[in-house]
């Protein structure tokens, strides 16, 4: 039996909170009742309880309801406890052990990605993707994986013209149309790549992790050197040292790690990517 059949009040309360969280502004109770599919009496009862506990605020002049301070406290607690990073770390550790290259987890912040976890492989060189570092999203594999999963209108708002594009090594998209074409290829492939666009001599393969709404919330990537003195590094999985072949062999590993983390956070693949 599902949660809605065993604890209907809890399921209905969560439905109200999720609905309010997805709105750009406070809403009328009638609209909430209609869109969530609850009787009006149930809706008003739940709103009354949530208002009393601080999770909902009533705006009497507008006759609308929005999220309250207690909801903000939950968000702050989420940030403090870092559950996404904690759930991702063992996934990244297993990925690093399997491929013999360093891996990291990044989240999108505007036109940049913020690195929140890095697992460095033994004997591999240090990377610029240390925890707390921000890099241009359109140049990184993680950023591209995340941007490819966003609504196209949101990507256009982030990168409206050529002035929005930062250059690091002279490579990578520099116009909205170039980025649009690149993201289309990422969506088709299911993984994103970059080669020398963040740091010369290094390439990355990344896949997006989706939340319970199907939106991309993080990117998992493996970064590997493409210019090594002496013999190429094959890695534990027996991959060839050639960068192109290496990327092909890493892609399913990275995608599998992203899928594992998606399951751990209760996410699902959006319908157009299933």
TrEMBL record:
<dbReference type="Pfam" id="PF09339">
    <property type="entry name" value="HTH_IclR"/>
</dbReference>
<dbReference type="InterPro" id="IPR050707">
    <property type="entry name" value="HTH_MetabolicPath_Reg"/>
</dbReference>
<dbReference type="InterPro" id="IPR005471">
    <property type="entry name" value="Tscrpt_reg_IclR_N"/>
</dbReference>
<comment type="function">
    <text>May be an activator protein for the gylABX operon.</text>
</comment>
<keyword id="KW-0804">Transcription</keyword>
<dbReference type="Pfam" id="PF01614">
    <property type="entry name" value="IclR_C"/>
</dbReference>
<keyword id="KW-0319">Glycerol metabolism</keyword>
<dbReference type="InterPro" id="IPR036388">
    <property type="entry name" value="WH-like_DNA-bd_sf"/>
</dbReference>
<feature type="region of interest" description="Disordered">
    <location>
        <begin position="227"/>
        <end position="246"/>
    </location>
</feature>
<dbReference type="GO" id="GO:0045892">
    <property type="term" value="P:negative regulation of DNA-templated transcription"/>
</dbReference>
<dbReference type="GO" id="GO:0003677">
    <property type="term" value="F:DNA binding"/>
</dbReference>
<dbReference type="InterPro" id="IPR029016">
    <property type="entry name" value="GAF-like_dom_sf"/>
</dbReference>
<keyword id="KW-0805">Transcription regulation</keyword>
<dbReference type="GO" id="GO:0003700">
    <property type="term" value="F:DNA-binding transcription factor activity"/>
</dbReference>
<dbReference type="GO" id="GO:0006071">
    <property type="term" value="P:glycerol metabolic process"/>
</dbReference>
<dbReference type="InterPro" id="IPR014757">
    <property type="entry name" value="Tscrpt_reg_IclR_C"/>
</dbReference>
<dbReference type="InterPro" id="IPR036390">
    <property type="entry name" value="WH_DNA-bd_sf"/>
</dbReference>
<feature type="domain" description="IclR-ED">
    <location>
        <begin position="70"/>
        <end position="267"/>
    </location>
</feature>
<feature type="domain" description="HTH iclR-type">
    <location>
        <begin position="7"/>
        <end position="69"/>
    </location>
</feature>
<protein>
    <recommendedName>
        <fullName>Glycerol operon regulatory protein</fullName>
    </recommendedName>
</protein>
<keyword id="KW-0238">DNA-binding</keyword>
């Amino acid at each position: 039996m599902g949660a809605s059949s065993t604890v209907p009040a809890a399921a209905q309360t969560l439905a109200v909170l999720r609905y309010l969280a997805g709105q750009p502004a406070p809403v009328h109770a009638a609209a909430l009742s209609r869109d969530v599919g609850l009787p009006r009496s149930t809706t008003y009862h739940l709103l009354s309880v949530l208002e009393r506990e601080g999770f909902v605020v009533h705006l009497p002049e507008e006759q609308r309801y929005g999220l309250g301070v207690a909801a903000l406290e939950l968000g702050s607690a989420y940030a403090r406890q870092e559950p996404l990073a904690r759930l991702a770390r063992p996934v990244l550790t297993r990925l690093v052990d399997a491929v013999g290259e360093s891996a990291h987890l990044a989240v999108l912040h505007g036109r940049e990605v913020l690195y929140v976890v890095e697992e460095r492989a033994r004997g591999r060189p240090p990377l610029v993707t240390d925890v707390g570092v921000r890099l241009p999203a359109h140049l990184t594999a993680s950023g591209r994986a995340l941007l490819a999963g966003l609504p196209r209108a949101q990507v256009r708002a982030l990168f409206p013209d050529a002035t929005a594009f930062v250059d690091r090594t002279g490579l990578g998209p520099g116009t909205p149309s170039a980025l649009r074409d690149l993201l289309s290829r990422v969506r088709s492939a299911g993984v994103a790549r970059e080669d020398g666009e963040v740091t010369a001599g290094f390439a990355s393969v990344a896949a997006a992790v989706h939340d319970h709404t199907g939106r991309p919330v993080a990117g998992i990537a493996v970064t590997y050197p493409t210019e090594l003195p002496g013999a190429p590094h094959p890695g534990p999985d027996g991959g060839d040292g050639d960068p192109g072949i290496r990327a092909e062999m890493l892609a399913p590993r990275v995608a599998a790690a992203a899928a594992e983390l998606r399951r751990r956070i209760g996410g699902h693949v959006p319908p157009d990517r299933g």
